[in-house]
């Protein structure tokens, strides 16, 4: 029999890289949210309910209203659509976890997904309990980071002008990771072109939706070329 | 600036609901061992790089090229994030370094 302590110890060591990443990005999110006029209760509330790095940063700009409901739904689905494919690897495993399976579905972020995919859990540990502990630890780092950032944001003494660039930097970093991880350059180039052209035509207020629709259409048109280039890609099982 | 309580609360719940719906979708659609339609798999593979590219444009949407400083701080900082990241592949270093440079640029240089 394994004890809870052993499972917690194993899960904690596995989640260490996520601990630092989530604390840092969470703090950045909390500070930005505080700067936008929402105190740390909002950071706590959002990190508990939405729990998604990239989407929470996009959400800051949506909170004040002004974006239509359809645009908000389409934007959320587009930013998050990759999550559809994360779940595919865990359908049977999460189903076997009962009520905890629902939390596993909710908490399947990019980082948790990559941990769950990559872990080689020792035979003597209960696999389901390790999965659940990893998921709970990851979200707790994120919630602590976001809330801390929100609290820090209201006490920071120095000039924070320009700190919002952290969000731009985050997306540039993800863009470079995708550039390396994806053989075909077409999707990235389609995104840059559709985004820029749509921004010029529709202006800063309403360019996202046309840019996304344009990208989906172009990608479907170019599908065969892209898939051919991607054939050697391996997908995490 | 903050705009009351109701609007941000509803927007958050909408985004939280959509996010859960997306994470739940594979379990609802393919839980019974059904095959995933090829067009969905294909879109799921191709869409992420395009969406992230659009989000980079989204972050820079308010930068004006015609008025001073002509987007220079943004382009320098994005360049530094890219160089740091291609060099070390360390998220914290790239994001932290780029943001710090940008803050110095907008506060002291431009």
From TrEMBL, chain A:
Query: Which terms are listed as keywords in the entry?
Result: Cell membrane, Membrane, Transmembrane, Transmembrane helix, Transport
Q: Where in the cell is it found?
A: Cell membrane
The record, for Pfam families, names: AzlC (PF03591)
Lipid bilayer topology: Multi-pass membrane protein
Source organism superkingdom = Bacteria
**TM stretches of this protein:** 12-33, 40-63, 69-89, 141-158, 188-221
Q: Which family does it belong to?
A: Belongs to the AzlC family.
Q: What is this protein called?
A: Branched-chain amino acid ABC transporter permease
Q: Which organism is it from?
A: Acetobacterium fimetarium
From TrEMBL, chain B:
Report keywords, A-Z.
Answer: Membrane, Transmembrane, Transmembrane helix
- Is Membrane one of the keywords UniProt gives this record? yes
Q: Which InterPro entries match?
A: Brnchd-chn_aa_trnsp_AzlD
A Pfam family for this UniProt protein? AzlD
Q: Which domain of life is it from?
A: Bacteria
- Please verify whether the record's keywords include Transmembrane: yes
Q: What is this protein called?
A: Branched-chain amino acid transporter AzlD
Q: Which organism is it from?
A: Acetobacterium fimetarium
